[in-house]
Design goal:
This protein is α+β, with helices and mostly antiparallel strands. Helices cover 44% and strands 27% of the residues. It has helices spanning 6-14, 18-22, 41-45, 50-70, 101-124, 160-175, 183-186; strands at 25-38, 74-79, 82-87, 132-148, 152-158, 179-181. Strands 1, 2, 3, 4, 5 and 6 form a six-stranded mixed β-sheet that branches. The two termini are 32 Å apart.
Length: 193
């Protein structure tokens, strides 16, 4: 569980035979993707020793993963000071009706508070406050085990929905906001909230 997303672990333990769950290939599913990134961390990290950079990233990622887990998300991967998260990865027999849209938005609403708490600790330690961006999009992806069969497999999601979430996260910089969700995500929210 420390090295694989929850959905991959569930798939190995619950779906089909273990051999099928570990095979290459995938399935097309509708999920909600969240892309996150820290603002200006790369430039900031140049002023710290490597172990300080890693400690700061681990503290940040730890605070965010706590929120992701609390809202039922599945961490796909860390990308330096960013992350790719999947919501709504139910089993093939039991898909999640809103494709995880509500959970992703609720998670995005909780992340700034978690970051604020972390920033209080950082300020007390004489460190600069962190800022983040979040992009959320709901759409079809291919989810499955991808890689080199004899070397390394990774359970991941690929497709335009992933790219859209990343672009939305990037747009938060220009828009001056913490988070942006697509219309496809908004359409799946309960009561439009």
């Amino acid at each position: 569980k420390r090295y694989l997303p929850n959905a991959a672990v569930r798939r190995v333990l619950e779906e089909r035979t273990s051999l099928d769950a570990l095979a290459l290939g995938g399935q097309q599913v509708t999920v909600t993707i969240m892309a996150t990134d820290l603002r200006g961390f790369t430039a900031m990290s140049k002023t710290f020793r490597p172990e300080e950079v890693v400690a700061q990233l681990n503290a940040y990622h730890g605070a965010m993963v706590e929120q992701i887990d609390h809202h039922g998300g599945s961490l796909d991967k860390f990308i330096g000071d960013g992350a790719l998260v999947v919501f709504g990865l139910g089993t093939s027999d039991s898909p999640i009706p809103d494709a995880g849209a509500q959970a992703a938005v609720d998670c995005a609403r909780s992340m700034p508070s978690a970051l604020s708490a972390l920033n209080s600790e950082r300020t007390a330690a004489g460190l600069e406050r962190l800022r983040m961006g979040i992009g959320i999009h709901t759409g079809e992806v291919i989810a499955g085990n991808i890689g080199a069969v004899s070397r390394r497999l990774e359970f991941t999601v690929i497709g335009d929905a992933v790219n859209t979430a990343v672009r939305l996260e990037s747009a938060t910089k220009e828009l001056g906001v913490v988070a942006v969700a697509s219309g496809a995500t908004f359409d799946r929210l309960r009561d439009g909230r």
